[in-house]
Write a structure and sequence with these properties.
27 helices, two-stranded antiparallel ribbon, mainly alpha, Rossmann fold, about 5% strand, globular, about 60% helix
């Protein structure tokens, strides 16, 4: 690491002299992210916000000092800085995943890779409902690159503003107003995943850094705030990193992230030359900052490919191993790929540079075409036997509304295919990280449900009890009774929650979830006990078939198919209008390859 410091190439043209303290801040940011992903620092994800603010500050400072006012020159420098490491990472990690990873890990890599290449990974993940806070979501080796996409979108658009306005005060005004507009969007949008990974709702961090880079703001801070205020700012950020816990800290998404980004912007201005300067200039910390880009790129794929399950290690021993491997790859990336192309390769500039860039884009794109997709296991329909009872005079059913959380999202896939084959129309309101009618995430469900009921007019509402149905039994009963009332003339069928294998996130709520069955029985409506499908406790395999995900929560295609046959039999025994069809008509119609099945 020290050698990297002594051998560091000269700064980019027209930039301010490099401030070692900012390298130290960058080192702290990447260390926080690594510790968060390793499970040791609940607020370490806030290192990404520090990255954003630093990027906004440094890029805006560079743009304001760039007297050439050339977008092509600026974008050329950004491409040489960012693309070479990505051009190695994307096919390299995909090939490693193909060779050593699980089928679902390869499936998501091939699906996400093109969007990373297009700098749209954050919007792709939102469209895929691959929530950042979904602790049991599918492993995605490129899932962390949503933040790189946000930065690259900023690098594409913000120079147009700076070069268009030219004057420092105008740039400061644009950055300030843009940051406030981004804050406004954060306050209006309620979904933590949408707020956290959307470019528009995270732009305030980059723009606050940009605001700090302008001369009027820089001078005002120097006149107004003494350098010692860097200490309480740093302590406040450190306290947040220690105490906040993602989506369980709602204040983050109600202005907290803005406040922390503002503190980071002030710290960037005040830390150099303050009492913190010596600590931030500590060479190992600076060295970590100098390889932070490559370290951020490589750490998450390493964490997944060298998982605790594969290595047989746990705790700090596993953390030290994966962090050491990630750091080694980051140093190799910087020494062999990033710095040579960025600073010394004459061919990387001009027409030859453009040709090389285009060729590398094609080579990386071929990765997503050439590598074969993993085959999807066929569903054994012989295991989908059903009960013979069919109602001849029960209420007639033609439309079914299915509700629940991410477990229900997976179950809805075969349900939709089977319902169609049975003459039913099924609509799913299942939602990852929510979807419930009781507990901390029910608000969005109640906001949407009246419209869906009015427009869809279901005959039956099937509610799969969610893993977020937290609260007292009285609170749970009230939520379920409200669903019965809101459903109006539609019948309500409650399906009890499948047994789960809790981790630390769910452990404190298991007693509450254990009361849900009693609460639904008190609420009115029909109750179907899913223990008939899943058993009393979590079972990954049944009769040699993998039915539940390795995460201990979700279902696999074989289990989802058996649940579907069971649920349709249960509905057919109570309501008329449901045609009995062979599972062969819906069990192997393509839904089992969906990305929402993972860990199978």
């Amino acid at each position: 690491m020290t050698n990297l410091l002594s051998a560091r190439p000269a700064a980019e043209p027209d930039a301010r002299p490099r401030l070692p303290a900012l390298d130290g801040l960058r080192g702290l940011a990447v260390a926080g992210v690594l510790l968060f992903h390793a499970g040791h620092l609940s607020g370490g994800f806030l290192g990404v916000d520090l990255f954003f603010v630093l990027s906004g500050y440094l890029i805006t400072d560079l743009l304001l000092r760039d007297h050439t006012r050339s977008l092509t020159v600026f974008w050329g420098r950004r491409i040489r800085r960012l693309w070479p490491a990505l051009a190695v990472l994307l096919p390299g990690v995909t090939l490693l995943t193909w060779a050593f990873g699980s089928p679902e890990l390869l499936r998501t890599a091939l699906a996400d890779g093109p969007w990373v290449q297009l700098n749209l990974a954050n919007w792709h993940l939102l469209a895929e409902s691959a929530g950042y806070w979904d602790r049991f979501g599918p492993g995605r080796v490129f899932g962390h690159l949503w933040s790189v996409a946000v930065e690259e979108q900023f690098y594409l658009l913000w120079p147009l503003v700076v070069f268009g306005l030219r004057r420092q005060r105008a740039v400061a005004l644009a950055a300030g107003l843009g940051a406030l507009a981004s804050l406004g969007l954060m306050l209006v949008l309620t979904d933590p995943d949408r707020v956290y990974t959307g470019t528009d709702t995270r732009a305030f961090a980059l723009l606050l850094g940009a605001l700090a880079a302008t001369e009027p703001v820089r001078e005002w801070v120097k006149r107004t705030l003494p350098s010692w205020t860097a200490v309480p700012l740093a302590l406040g950020l450190a306290l947040a990193w220690l105490l906040v816990d993602g989506e369980k800290s709602p204040m983050l998404f109600q202005g907290g992230l803005f406040a922390l980004s503002l503190a980071a912007a002030l710290l960037i201005l005040l830390a150099p030359g303050s009492v913190l300067d010596r600590g931030l200039c500590w060479q190992p910390l600076r060295g970590l900052g100098l390889v932070s880009y490559g370290l951020y790129l490589w750490h998450w794929p390493v964490f997944l490919l060298l998982s605790k399950e594969k290595t047989g290690l746990d705790g700090w021993l596993w953390t030290v191993l994966v962090c050491a491997v990630s750091l080694g790859l980051a140093v190799l990336s910087k020494v062999l790929v990033e710095d040579p192309i960025r600073y010394r390769a004459a061919w990387a500039r001009g027409r030859t540079g453009l040709a090389a860039f285009a060729a590398s884009l094609v080579v990386v794109a071929l990765t997503w075409i050439v590598l074969p997709r993993p085959a999807t296991a066929a569903i054994d329909t012989s295991a989908l036997g059903g009960r013979p009872a069919v109602s001849a005079n029960g209420p007639k059913v033609s439309k079914v509304l299915f509700m629940g959380d991410s477990i229900a999202e997976g179950l809805a896939l075969p349900l939709t295919a089977a319902a169609k084959a049975s003459g039913l129309t099924l609509k799913s309101m299942a939602a990852a990280g929510g979807g419930g009618v009781v507990g901390p995430l029910a608000e969005s469900t109640w906001a949407e449900l009246p419209r869906v009921l009015t427009e869809f007019r279901p005959d039956v509402v099937v509610y799969q009890v969610t893993t977020y149905d937290w609260g007292s039994q009285a609170e749970q009963r009230a939520g379920y009774q409200r669903l019965v009332r809101e459903a109006g003339g539609a019948k309500v069928v409650f399906v009890t929650m499948p047994p789960i294998r809790p981790d630390d996130f769910y452990a404190e709520h298991m007693a509450e979830l254990g009361r849900t069955t009693a609460a639904v029985k008190e609420a009115g409506g029909e109750v179907l006990d899913s223990r008939e499908v899943w058993g009393e406790t979590y079972q990954r395999e049944r009769d040699g078939r993998i039915e539940r995900s390795s995460d201990g929560i979700h279902t696999c295609p074989a289990g989802a198919a058996r649940f579907t046959a069971w649920l349709l039999d249960g509905l057919a025994a109570r309501y008329s209008g449901i045609a009995r069809v062979s599972p062969d008509t819906w069990a192997n119609t393509g839904w089992a390859a969906d990305k929402r099945f993972h860990g199978c």
